[in-house]
Amino acid sequence: RLVIGVLGLQGAVTEHINQVETSGCNGVIVKKPEQLKEIDGLILPGGESTTMRKLIERYGFFEPLKQFSKQRKPLFGTCAGMVLVAKELSASSEAHLQLMDVRVKRNAFGRQKESFEAVLPIKGLDLPFSAVFIRAPYIEKAAQHVEIISTYENHIVAAKQDHILVTAFHPELTNDTRMIEIFIDMVKKSKNTVAL
Ligand code: GLN
C-alpha cells in the first residue's frame, strides 16, 4: 500500500487522513521531519498559512520539506497548503516554501464570500466536483508550464506543476474522493518511476 502523509501541525488533518484511507492508502500524520522518509507523498492541509509557517520553522520542517520536493516526491496543497507552496504571494506578503511557479492571493474571494460551495468542472474528471471554499485563496498568475485544472469565475482554483498539485478548495470536506485519487495517481506514477 502507498503511504500518504498529512502534515499534522495545524488545520484539517484527520479529514485528509480519512480520505486517504477510504481511497485504499495508508495515512500517516506527519509531526516530525524524520517521518518524511517513510511516506510516498505528502498533503499540506488547509488551515492558517501564517500559523503553519511558524510551526514549520519551530519543528524544523522548512529544509526537509524543500528536500522532499527536490526529490520530486508528490505534494498536494489544499487551501492554506496552496499558499505555502506558492513562489509568490500578492500584496507583498512574504512567500513560504516557494515550490510552485504561481502567484497566490490569500483570502481572495472577499468578505461576502468567506465560505461557499461551487460545482466545478475539473480537468481529468468526467463529472463536476462540489468544491468547498473557506476563506480561500486563488492563483492570480501562473507560469506557462503550470497546468490549469479548474477555474471559478475566471480565477484559477486548481492546478498542477510536475509533482505538485494544489486546490484552493477543501476536497477533504466532502465525501467525494476523486480529487485525492488524482493525487494518489501522481504518487503511484512517481513511485513506479523511482523503482525503474
Ligand atoms: N485564509 C487561509 C490562509 O491564507 C487559508 C484558509 C483555509 O485553508 N481554509 O492561510
Which tags fit this structure?
Rossmann fold, 196 residues, EC 4.3.3.6, 5 helices, seven-stranded mixed sheet, EC 3.5.1.2, binds glutamine, three-stranded mixed sheet, alpha/beta
Give the SSE layout:
Elements: E1 3-7, H1 13-22, E2 26-30, E3 41-44, H2 49-58, H3 62-70, E4 75-78, H4 80-85, E5 86-89, E6 100-105, E7 115-120, E8 129-134, E9 138-142, E10 147-152, E11 155-161, E12 164-167, H5 178-195
Glutamine binds at residues 46-49, 79-80, 83, 106-107, 134-135, 137.
Structural description of this entry:
The protein has 196 residues and is α/β, with parallel strands linked by helices. It has a single domain (3-195), classed as Class I glutamine amidotransferase (GATase) domain (Rossmann fold), CATH 3.40.50.880. It has helices spanning 13-22, 49-58, 62-70, 80-85, 178-195, and strands at 3-7, 26-30, 41-44, 75-78, 86-89, 100-105, 115-120, 129-134, 138-142, 147-152, 155-161, 164-167. The strands form three sheets. It has a seven-stranded mixed sheet with strand order 2-1-3-4-12-11-10. Strands 5-6-9 form a three-stranded mixed sheet. Strands 7-8 form a two-stranded antiparallel ribbon. The longest helix is centred in the C-terminal third of the chain and has 18 residues, at 178-195. 44% of the residues are buried. Glutamine (GLN) binds next to helix 4.
